[in-house]
Recover the amino acids of this structure.
């Protein structure tokens, strides 16, 4: 009877670190207006943190002055986020657990060109229609770009932050 080779325990591959969760944070003079614009622009959902706010108010951990009413529900006065509608959210806080943009109130206005911006990808052949939809929401066209690498439109959101539509 042939002998079996000794059993070996497979060595698991070295574990790679898990990807980090992140959100993109944008400074804003009016975070709620920015959130409404970007939620409509990206077909995202404005986060509902009203249950968390109610809990914090009840515990005395949040002063009432730190809240506002937004779309008929309590919201933080100085920050609000939008999230992809298919991504999960924490049911106790309303905070998105996936793709999200957070808008935070800052006292100073935007100065200079963005160092980071969003590129919005319109469906094939729909860039002109998408630009028209976004301008109807409050964006303004800054310039049209035609280069050997492609064509896109540079716009500004209601607070002047540049973004592109390809």
């Amino acid at each position: 009877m042939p002998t079996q080779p000794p059993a070996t325990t497979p060595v698991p591959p070295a574990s790679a670190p898990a990807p980090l969760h992140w959100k993109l944070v944008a400074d804003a003079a009016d975070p709620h207006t920015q959130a409404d614009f970007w939620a409509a622009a990206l077909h995202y959902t404005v986060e509902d943190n009203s249950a968390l706010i109610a809990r914090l108010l009840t515990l005395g951990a949040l002063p009432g002055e730190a809240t506002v009413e937004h779309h008929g529900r309590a919201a933080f006065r100085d920050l609000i986020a939008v999230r992809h509608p298919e991504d999960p959210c924490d049911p106790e806080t309303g905070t998105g657990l996936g793709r999200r943009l957070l808008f935070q109130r800052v006292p100073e206005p935007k100065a200079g060109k963005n160092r980071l911006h969003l590129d919005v990808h319109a469906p094939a052949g729909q860039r002109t229609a998408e630009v028209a939809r976004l301008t109807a929401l409050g964006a303004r066209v800054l310039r049209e770009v035609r280069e050997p690498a492609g064509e896109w439109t540079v716009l500004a959101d209601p607070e002047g932050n540049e973004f592109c539509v390809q």
The helical segments are 31-42, 50-59, 127-137.
